[in-house]
Amino acid sequence: MAEKPEAESLEIPDELRDKDPDDLTGDIPPDELRGKTPEELQNLTDVLEAHMRSLHQTDEGELRDKTPDEQKAFDYALKLRDKAIDRLDEHRAIAEVFRRRPKAVTQTMRRIRYGDTDGVTHVRGLSNAEARERSLRTLDSRDATAHMSDLQKAQVEKMLRRDTDIARRIIVTENEDYRDAWMKLLSNPNPMLSDEERNAVRAWEEYRAMSEVSPGSAGGYGVPVFIDPSIILTAQESGNPFLQICRQVTVSTNAWKGVSSAGVTWSFDAESTTATPNPVSDDAPTLAQPTVAVNTARGFIPYSIQVGDDYPMFADEMSRLLAEGYDELLVDKFSRGTGTNEPTGIITALDANTNVEVQVTTNNAFAVDDIYKVWKALPQKYRRRASWMSSVDVNNKVRGFGGSNVYHGYTVDLTAEAADVLLNKQWYESPYFPDYVASTTTYSNLLVVGDFNNYLIARRGGMSVELIPHLFQQQTANAGVGMPTGQRGWFGYARIGGGSVNDLGFRLLQDPTA
Predict the structure, then answer these.
(1) Final residue of a structural domain among 42, 67, 100
(2) Residues 237 and 294 in one domain
(3) Per the count of CB atoms within 10 A, which of 180, 200, 240, 340 is most buried?
């Protein structure tokens, strides 16, 4: 009987050619398995199994008689596949641990990575340098700051480097346990907190008790720093012109106190004079101490119980709502605040100082010459860094000054949104500055020009929020006790103040009565 011919030899795949199975002995992973993700390892096992099948069977399913080189390649592929499967099994076992206790594992990994073995409850014992270093490491974490822009990160870093109170606040609020507890506390009147979450809240309470100096600020749960609008609001991402051009300071008390002076008056005196009563003139400056009170801004957000039942995006939505309302309030009060339990607006401050008021040349006839007049009235040292500010209505009035007989008054045409530059200085718009009204009975405050570094914004970093568990309908005289509306509420508050610390650095253009 004739012998069956041998099967034709196959071309051995490049990744298996000249490989020795004996090289795969021992516990050290081979080069083929290093640096691969679980998905890449799974793909590798699939490829190896396909190669082994082609070496072991024909397309018709018949078993092949392998050549020595094919057998060697087959054995190498089999061992490599087994090691890849072992590596995948190890990964799946560890992943199961992560799945069962994700919070504990994540917290432990964070503490191992950042050296936070003492936990956040020991923030009191940290030195300023240690607190700053630890908070900077948290700021560098992509998981914690993925939602923040580069400008917001830069704003937070700038604040924590000059204010260790912000650094300590980051340590106690920017961790997974506190964030989870905060969301529960702000969504459920009776939340079930884990031991880790209760400890995180206790750490916040210890920090707050240590840092607060006013009993009026007690209570509430601190908004995590990386979504706190009172901290991460930046000039470039806010419609608030005051945050762009005014001086901002962080304080730890209920008021900022500074020192101001009109300057030292120098003089030339005669050599070796014995003149009386003073051989050398007294050039000591007169010092004053301007103050800016830090007031409490408040915001309230009602919401239905149904909305509160589903809060996967709670933190992001909360941050957006708080930021929008808070930012708008600041623009309003920095423009026209009364100074009583709120910032003193720039218009309010200057309108009370006749030394900085400039009146239009002709009543009820605001004209281009008045721009030159108020600009000239501003001292030269303040013109160097001056800015303009007004309502859009006054801006529109100015942009219309140019005409056939006053070419020098031309600013921009109607294709531009506004006259952003005047006399080579930036012009800012506030919706809370007054419009231009020609009247014979009242005067109008038209615009402010000056160096806005002389308007100071003082704030205590950090916003707190409390949950109002049930809202009730308004009680009328005969309706008895108000009934619940099926709503809850978030009550937020932050400490901030503002005011002019040097009125002489500005000029206020007015149109008086006829």
Answers:
(1) 100
(2) yes
(3) 200
Do 153 and 194 have their domain in common?
yes
Question: pTM of the entire structure?
Answer: 0.69
318, 334, 253: which is closest to 463 by C-alpha? 318
Q: Does 278 fall in a domain?
A: no
Same domain, residue pair 176 and 245: no
Question: pLDDT digit string (tens) for 385-418?
Answer: 999 999 999 999 999 898 878 878 888 888 888 8
Alpha-carbon gap, residue 192 to 272, rounded angstroms = 84
DSSP symbol at 35: T
Number of other CB atoms surrounding residue 246 within 10 Å: 21
φ, ψ at 375 (rounded to 5°): -65, -40
- pLDDT above 90 (res 285): no
- In terms of residue numbers, what domain contains 51? 21-100
Q: 288: which strand partners?
A: 260
Residue 443 lies in a domain: yes
Coil, strand or helix at 450? strand
478 in a domain, yes or no?
no
Interhelix angle 195-211/176-185, nearest 10 degrees: 90
Domain count, the chain: 3
404: which DSSP letter? T
State whether residue 343 is helix, strand or coil: coil
pLDDT value of position 37: 86
- Whether residue 126 sits in one domain with residue 81: no
Selected residue with higher pLDDT from 34 and 345: 345
Claim to verify: residue 211 and residue 237 sit in the same structural domain: no
Q: What is the mean pLDDT of residues 177-194?
A: 85
Q: What is the pLDDT of residue 105?
A: 55
Contact call for residues 513 and 439 (beta carbons, < 8 A): yes
Looking at the predicted structure, is the pLDDT value of residue 118 above 80?
A: no
Contact 363, 354 (CB under 8 A): no
State CA 368 to chain mean position distance.
41
d(CA 329, CA 327): 5
Looking at 141-240, which runs of residues are DSSP E strands?
A: 221-222
CA 139 to chain centre: 11
Residue ranges with strand state E in 72-229? 221-222
Q: Does 281 fall in a domain?
A: no
What is the phi/psi pair of residue 251, to 5°? -120, 165
With 0-12 / 13-18 / 19 or more C-beta atoms within 10 angstroms meaning exposed / middle / buried, residue 260 is middle
CATH code of the domain covering residue 323: 3.90.1690
**pLDDT one-digit tens code per residue, 64-114:** 888 888 888 888 888 888 888 888 888 888 877 666 555 555 555 555 444
